[in-house]
Request: fold
Amino acid sequence: MSKLRASLALVILSFLSNSVFSQPGDPNAGPTINIGGDGTTTTLGSLLGNRIFPLETYSEVSGSPYFLDSFTNCVITTKKGQKYAYNKMRMNLHSQKIHFLDKNNTELVVDDDVITRIVFLKQGVDTIAGFAFSCNYPAIGKNNSLTYYLEVNSGRARMLQLISKDVGSSNMVTGQVAKKEFKEHKEYFMYNENHSKMERFKKGKESVLDLLRDKKDLVEKFINDNNLNCKSAEDVVKVFDYYNSLK
Reply:
């Protein structure tokens, strides 16, 4: 895991052809939850969606499409701002879908545009670490508001990491049939909530200062005082954390 990953993690959905997930699942999947303050109840499965994930989908591809292979404890935030804890979810980085298990351990897929954040919690010996993904960022290139990014830091200015797992072919000896495998790709983006501005990470302080232009003088002094060249994600996170501490 990257050392830049924040101590909380949030995950959001992206897009994939609905034809792959056409079979309905158990409408009573998951626990009963309260909706609003009027006593109305529903099941988590009804809220998230009930499309069964066909396990044979990746049978011919080696490797894993998931961020964490095992189903993990998490805290989700819905588009309406409601928060729920759930203990059987995982993130598919190939489809950018969130999967969960119902009470019968059937693997289901969360519908698009339902969860806005998800925090995967991982228990250590004496600590709890987390991994955060989020969406609803401005469109950039082929990425849209449903694209999920791992939050490297929290606050108004954020370094985001897009992790994708695409299907490629392994290098084989001449004459042999190439095998399909998942290949991981990572790309960094910078976002400033104050300006609703999203940019690809560029090495150098110029793009950082432009993104944080409302505090440019203070930020530039911090960069110079700390001998930061802003050519690494680590440097930029330090600058963002400083910016986020300013009033």
Observations:
- The two ends are 32 Å apart (CA to CA).
